[in-house]
Amino acid sequence: MNTFLAWLTAKLNKKPMSESLAILFFDIFLVPVIIICTLYTMYLYNSMQKFEMDKVNSSLEKTTAEFNSALTEALEFSDRVYINKKVQNLLTPEYENIQDIYSAYSELNFLEDYLKIYRSIANFRIYVKNESLLDNSFIIKTSQDTYEEPWCKTAVIMKGHAFWQFTYDQITKKTYLSLVRSLWTPSYRQYIGVLVINMSPEVIQQQLSQQLYETLVYFDDDFLYSSAQGLSQEEIKNIPLLLKNQKFNEVYSKIHLGKETRGIFARDFLPNNSMCIKFKIVYLIPIKLLQIQTVKNITITIFLLLMMVLLAFTVFFIHNRYVHNRVQKVKSGIEKVVENNFEIEKSIGGNDEFQSIYSNLYQMSENLRELIDQVYKQNIEKEQIKAKQSQISFKMLSSQINPHFFFNSIETIRMKAFSSGDKDVAKMLQILAKLLRYNLSVKGSPVPLEKELEAVNNYLSIQHMRFTDRIKYNINVNVNLSDYEILPLLIQPLVENSFNHGLEDRENGGIINIDINDEIKDDNRILFIKISDNGCGIAEDKLKIIKDKLEQDSLESTENSIGLGNVNSRIRLFYKKGSGLSINSQLDKGTEVKITLILDK
Fold first, then answer.
1. Residue 429 bridge partners (DSSP)
2. What is the distance of C-alpha 86 from the center of its chain?
3. Which stretches of 25-138 are DSSP H helices?
């Protein structure tokens, strides 16, 4: 079984699905159906033949019983005559005058009444030995010639036992099938005569004509009666000989009679309570008639089976065509995706496995398209970031810190140097040198948080020297600085924005606060850097524009500013999802910018 399944699987794997389904339909359905239908047809044929044979045999038994019943009537009639004392008393005495004979005959009128009861009896004769009796229609004195008849001698020998015999009736001048029986006194001491009961051919012939099939009756292979049509007397007489030479099968045999082949059924039987050679009843049935019902039923069955196969083939063809079309649609969609053509139909309809596969294919194509768009967009953004990084480095190289700040710092140094030889000049120059060295040395890779804060502190120190008490600053660190590295120049641009846009025009009381905190959440470290000031703040409409740009992660392209957008883009590019900038501000109250960096734990 496993070998067959392996062979079938290997065979089907090499075929298209439509051919595989056709092979399965033929091997698993059509071949078994043909075999089963053939076996069933053979079984049905044999069953119908047996049914027809049983029907014929049943009819043959019925015909035999009816014919036997007719013969039994003759036997019953003979019994009534045989045991009737009036008959014995009439036939044995010697009569001296005719008047006594007529008077005695009048006592036998009841015999004629018997004939009315038994319709199958044509007439009867009593051949008597008593010479004093007169002949009439049923009592006949036995002549010497009659005594010499075989049937008469046999009757005397059989001592009252009934038997059947062909006899010639002298009155009607006809030959009859007759029941013959000798009559004796009760003690069997005195022979009375011979009773001959002649069967009515007309009545028996009428019974035979009412049978379903052509019927023939033989006695000792001699033809008696027949209801067959279209057969010659020679053919009818030869049937017993044909039956002797014919080898019967279990049901029936065939012989050719007349112009057609006929099935022949024969049955022998002995009448009840009589001694005789056997009777034979024969049915002759045309083969066409014998098989007509069988052929009709077989034809109907074959037609229904063919219709069933045709219907199954039609349903298979429609289903196979449906499956083929859906397979082609799925295949076409896959081929398009393989060729990087993601413009495929959203659905092929239906709710089957093919639709499920196609839905997954469509979703995969959409995901691939989104992934390609995302990768393409990220590549563009990376290129823009790289360009912007180069621009930042170039700006740093060309004193990007802000020329206004740089020249103002130089002017302050000049004024202090001009006023007096204060040591602050040297300190300020030293801080400025450190700041410029840091800004020019960074490449874009992460630096220790401590160095970034040192650069920011240098920047704030210089600004504090410029503005003195007009602007103050605080740096509050609540983390272990050695645990963190961040991208360079994330904090300083935001602090610079606070000076340039929030505090530069403030005459006193300006404050910049830098707060650094962290937390652990969902197996991630989150670093929070907040830069806040109490400057002029941002108008609500302008703040909304800034927030929208940060939300859309749009890059700024200003030539003289790194900008919030650039910082935000760098953060989102290099840190986990959820990292970035957020800004809040109120006009005339100040601005707060918060950096959120999500790092691995």
1. none
2. 89
3. 31-83, 85-91, 98-105, 110-117
Q: Are 133 and 169 in contact (CB under 8 A)?
A: no
Query: Taking Cα atoms as reference points, which of 595, 590, 542, 545 lies closest to residue 567?
Result: 595
Separation between Cα atoms, residue 573 and residue 567, nearest integer Å: 10
pLDDT in tens, 403-452: 556 556 656 665 666 566 666 666 776 677 677 777 766 667 789 999 99
Single-letter code of the amino acid located at 40:
Y
Q: Which pTM was predicted?
A: 0.49
The answer to whether the CB of 490 falls within 8 A of the CB of 452 is yes
Query: To the nearest whole number, what is the mean pLDDT of the chain?
Result: 80
Classified as helix, coil or strand, 191 is strand
Distance of CA 230 to the CA centre of its chain: 59
In 3-state terms the chain splits into helix, strand, coil percentages (rounded to 5) of 55, 20, 25
Spatial strand order of the sheet with 580-586 comes to 471-477, 510-521, 524-533, 590-600, 580-586
Q: d(Cα 474, Cα 511) in Å, to the nearest integer?
A: 8
Token representation of residue 203: 């009545």
Q: In b/e form, how buried is each residue of 30-60, taking b as 16+ CB within 10 angstroms?
A: beeeeeebeeeeeebbeebbeebbeebeebb
Structure-block tokens of residue 552: 């859309």
CA distance 350 to 352: 6
529 touches 481 (CB < 8 A): no
Q: Which DSSP symbol is given to 489?
A: T
Structure token pair of residue 87: 């008959």
At residue 383, the 3 state secondary structure works out as: helix
In angstroms, the CA 446 to CA 438 distance is: 13
Q: Which residues pair with 459 in a beta bridge?
A: none
User: Phi and psi at residue 487, in whole multiples of 5°?
Assistant: -65, 145
> Closest Cα to residue 177, out of 136, 225, 210, 215?
225
**Complete DSSP assignment for 110-143:** HHHHHHHH-TTEEEEEEEE--TTSPP-SSEEEPP
